[in-house]
Write a structure and sequence with these properties.
By secondary structure, this protein is mostly beta strands. The chain has a single domain, classed as OB fold (Dihydrolipoamide Acetyltransferase, E2P) (Beta Barrel). Helix content is about 15%, strand content about 40%.
């Protein structure tokens, strides 16, 4: 019997050997027949911690690995490079003073 496979986007990769993958699908309204986009979230086992936020991945249903993990990562379809900016990298006081100086110079 073939296992179910889904394609989705990595939403969260903070846990060790786990990622949260979002799979979007359309649901038609029973009365108005208009399609709505829905999002299903799956906790996926990522053995090598290779997937990062924003990546398009192929996941496959597997045996229960933990309380919530029932899927495993098959491969990464598309790798996305997201610029990571930490809050400590941004000096909020300098950003605020820079914004006020530019506002004052416009007047």
């Amino acid at each position: 019997m073939a296992r179910k496979q889904q394609t989705g986007t990595v939403l969260k990769d903070q846990n060790d050997k786990s990622v949260v993958v979002g799979v979007s699908w359309l649901q038609r309204d029973r009365i108005y027949k208009k399609a709505r986009r829905k999002l299903s979230k799956f906790v996926v086992h990522d053995e090598n911690n290779s997937a990062t936020v924003g990546d398009r991945v192929l996941i496959e249903q597997s045996r229960p690995i933990s309380k919530t993990k029932r899927w495993r990562l098959v491969n990464i379809i598309e790798k996305i490079d997201v610029a990571e900016v930490q809050p400590s990298d941004i000096d909020s006081e300098a950003a605020l003073s820079g914004a006020t100086e530019s506002d004052e110079s416009e007047d």
